[in-house]
Amino acid sequence: MLFIDFRQHVLAVVRQVLADKGLTDADYMNVALEAPKEESHGDLATNAAMVLAKKVGMAPKALAEMLLEGLKVHEAVEAVEIAGPGFINFRLKTSALIGQGVAATAAGGAYGTLKAADTRKAMVEYVSINPTGPIHVGHGRNAVFGDAIANVLEKAGFPVWREYLVNDSGNQINVLVRSLHARYMQLFGHDVAVPDNGYPGEYLIEVAEKLKARDGDKWVSETDEQVLLRELRSFAVETCLDLIKQDIQTLGIEFDRYFSEFAMHQTDRMAEVVAILRNKGLVNEGTLPPPKGKEIADYKPVELTLFKATEFGLAEDQAIYNRAGMPTYFGQDIAYHYDKLQRGYELLVTVIGIDQTGAFKPLAKAIEALTGRGDVYHPVAYEMVKVMRNGEPVKLSKRAGNIVLLSDVLEEVGTDAFRFTMLTVKPTTTLVFDLAHAVAKTMDNPVFYVQYAHARLCAVERQREELGIPALDAAKLDVATMKISAEARSVLREIMLYPALIEQAARSLEPHRLTFYAQSLAAAIHRWYAAEKWLDSADVRATHERLAVAFAARTVLADVLKLCGVNAPTSM
RNA sequence: GCGCCCGUAGCUCAGUGGAUAGAGCAUCAGCCUUCUAAGCUGUUGGUCGCAGGUUCGAUUCCUGCUGGGCGCGCCA
Question: What is the number of structural domains in chain A?
């Protein structure tokens, strides 16, 4: 690919020219090749002279002069100039951009696919909502982020496994069963309230009805809670998980595996990892100080099994088992991540809500202790989604009855609009999702803008056929002598930059970059569309040249939308 | 009290140790005898929260302050 090849050229020349300056690999780390903000500054630019000037003991512009001759020597280069404080700007030959476009069309979905420099097996764990009820909008953000991250990592060359952790073994499942049983009893006319700390959502009535349909009144007279917990656990979990899976399916997401924590605890994973950490001197028995945030009247310290997070500079150790001897969330997390490592995954991405990030620092330290590496665990924390309705904020709470269900929102705005909107904001920004706007399908939502560009590209090909213009045979194009408009050239420039986008989005785990690229490419396409008529029966050659650009654009636009999980419609 | 995130145009948000800080919406003014006007062109709009520091250069990195959001047993 042109961008990748050209960057190799730049780095090779810089290293060659400065070979006797005693620079290290680390010195070259910050040398970058990127597109200037102003298109008039050129197609690509490198900061090499500015970054290395001090190390070499030269002024940036003088160093740039020194590099210039070598950098010029590349078949794609039309002109090189030094500008501003020491940028080296490249203007590429239009024929090189066209060649890249034609190649992109030929490669189809493979264009922009990178060979990862490291070939670690990656696992993206996302959604992982407790199977105690349906998904709300905030969970939808998790799902969309995780899926796009997985897509982009795959595109960047990593083998990727998508996993959902089903947290089906904690106390919340007991709470779920109690709540379900209360709803079940209500169906039989018994005045039983949902427990105070239970799940009051009305969806449990539906679950209870399913239980009634399956078992009749079998559990009405059952008074032994242990029996209920044992007998109804898997029914409750599976039925609730089905609710979640419906939404996952609507979003177009497929997991490679739903990993059951309950099943994991039937194995020795937890004991194994605790033993390993204990052997490393990182687990011992001890007591924790009282919690900071609030007063606890009858607090009594007790000896617990602790992970010594303080060894890593963290404020407090973390309990692995609670005073009842059951695994804590943190303990389960260690065991689960140990399991991931045992299965051979070495790049562990977890998409997690910002309100759930309390334990990820000690978990990161535990994984570091297990692997000896600090670059294995990558939590992606995303901020809350603030849902507005008629100017009033809608509070998101799993416990409260008035949660905004993802399925409702998807029905209102459609999967494409939802996914695209969720990807227009970086993870750390609190996202304000205005239902009124989204429902109205105004241009507040740029997904239509991007999809429309794709539809136009497809419509033109249909029109070509109707006009009786022969289909394009890319092999017959004379790339070297093609003449295209400035607007078409801008489209090709965006296409040339696609591999850089993939690389950056994968490295930063920031999939919102995809939608910004998509909008940028779509804007170039719309501008070009408005600037000149593409189809001309009187000039088949020129028409074919423009179609070649259009097909390249269609290829890349469809691919980036696919990474976003958004449809690329052929007509609108 | 502590920890994490955020503060950029009227609104919703991008962006960067460097070139004149951007997009969409909203405002105002234009463009359909021409492949889909869900589009295009132009216009208005900024003390990048405040104050220091680091350096050739800071909106970007560091510190303090301030405003907002979230979290703070061995819970879930």
Answer: 3
